[in-house]
Amino acid sequence: MSKLYWESSYEIVLCLKEAYPDTDVETLGLEQLYRYIVTLPNFADDPALVNEGILNEILREWYEEVNP
User: Fold this and answer.
1) Phi and psi (nearest 5°) for 46?
2) Are 2 and 42 contacting, i.e. CB atoms less than 8 angstroms apart?
């Protein structure tokens, strides 16, 4: 499995879908999303480099992935 970095939003979403299949993405907060991402086993980026825009983009992609 390849390492994940903040700019790999789609790959992060795929890993989140697998790790947290029962998550209600519509009610997920950014803080919880952040915790989910930085605890993924292949996450390799600096957690301090994230911002609200990155988290919102990942959340939007995750929502679109599970609600086609």
Assistant:
1) -80, 115
2) yes
Instruction: Give the CA distances from residue 40 to residues 13, 20, 60, in Å, rounded to whole numbers and listed in that order.
Output: 11, 10, 18
pTM flag (> 0.70): yes
Residue type, 16: L
How far are the Cα atoms of 19, 25, 41 from residue 53, in angstroms, in the given order?
22, 17, 23
Distance CA 63, CA 68 (A): 8
The model's pLDDT over 9-24, given as tens digits with 9 standing for 90+, comes to: 999 999 999 999 999 9
Domains and CATH numbers, the chain: 9-66 (1.10.10.600)
Residue 17 has a CB neighbour count (10 Å cut-off) of 14
Q: Determine contact, residues 28/12, Cβ cutoff 8 Å.
A: no
> 54 is written with which tokens?
């990155």
